[in-house]
Amino acid sequence: MPAADDAVVASWQANAAAWTGAVRDGLIASRRITGPALIEILRERAPARVLDLGCGEGWLTRALAPMGIAVVGVDASAPLIDAARAAGGGPFLVRDYAAIAAGETTLPLADAIVCNFSLLGLAPVDRLLAAVPHLLDPAAPRAALIVQTLHPHAGCGDAPYRDGWRTEIWSGFGEGFVQPAPWYFRTLESWTALLTRSGLWLTDMREPPNPDTGRPASLILVAEPVRDAG
Fold it and tell me: What is the CATH classification number for the domain harbouring 56?
């Protein structure tokens, strides 16, 4: 695994307490748009079982449980899972993407797999998405992967519009962040190509608007497994 991919996990270990505080104290303004946008899609699709991959401190898992959805939250950061368990609404499991992709850990089949701003690396993300069709219940007619990520046109900033590693320095996220976080930027073309390589086809794409800026607050991709014609 490239050093940058290792550093992604290390950063989320080191910054777990600060991130938990930022989320629970409402310090991230964009989440007032992106959270409801994701919940809206899940209400529309009405899955019975959800895997929340990269669940962080567990806000989405807790939000879905009262809707009658059976949710399992999964994250590679043990401190974040500790915070999630303390707040309830689980179950929550410590699992990394490499182990999931390699089939080294057992997870329940799901009607929906949600990755909410949690596909941040390169090689582990590629391998994880290749495993997604095997984690979705083949008996569920609308089983899907739902990815919310930075919109490439907004997240690119002033850098060239091409795939590559970037660094999050946590500006505007509050205090207590002790380590920058690398993340891998993908263009829209790269995202759609990755889904195709993973045996998934894009069925829905949304760009929740930020009313203050008129620009997309995020990009949401919904992809279903490619099924045999027979």
Answer: 3.40.50.150
> Dihedrals φ, ψ of 97, to 5°?
-65, -35
Within 88-225, residue ranges assigned H as helices are 97-101, 123-135, 152-155, 188-197
Total domains in the chain come to 1
Instruction: Please provide the DSSP assignment of 151-196 as one string.
Output: -HHHHTTTS-SS-EEEEE--TTS-S---S-EEEEE--HHHHHHHHH
In a domain, 230, yes or no: no
Domain that holds residue 98: 3-225
pLDDT in tens, 5-38: 999 999 999 999 999 999 999 999 999 999 999 9
pLDDT surpasses 50 at 1: no
